[in-house]
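Lab meeting, item 3. Inverse folding demo.
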């Protein structure tokens, strides 16, 4: 699965995250892909820190939502799903390393 296919396949997941209040950032992407090897990705999910702090296990909630909103083929393309709260690189705040060319923010 390529990046564009993965992006499309995760559209329901992204929308569900926003609808449930896990992530809702106006004009800010909530997923960041890094291709680990061909067709397999590390996916950062940028969530609201306030939401995550009030959950017993926020990663499990996201994984459950991922299973509800995606097909098995999509999940096989994700090696790692990670929570992330750092939005600085989206807004040019602070000192942040430039992402490699292999990364795509969606």
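The presenter then showed the designed sequence:
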């Amino acid at each position: 699965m390529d990046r564009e296919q993965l992006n499309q396949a995760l559209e329901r997941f992204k929308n569900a995250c926003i609808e449930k209040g896990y992530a809702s950032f106006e004009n800010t992407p909530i997923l960041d892909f890094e291709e680990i090897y061909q067709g397999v990705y590390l996916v950062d999910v940028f969530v609201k820190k306030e939401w995550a702090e009030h959950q017993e296990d926020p990663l499990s909630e996201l994984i459950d939502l991922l299973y509800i909103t995606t097909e098995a083929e999509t999940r096989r393309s994700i090696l790692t799903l990670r929570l992330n709260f750092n939005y600085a690189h989206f807004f040019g705040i602070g000192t942040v390393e430039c992402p490699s060319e292999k990364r795509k923010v969606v």
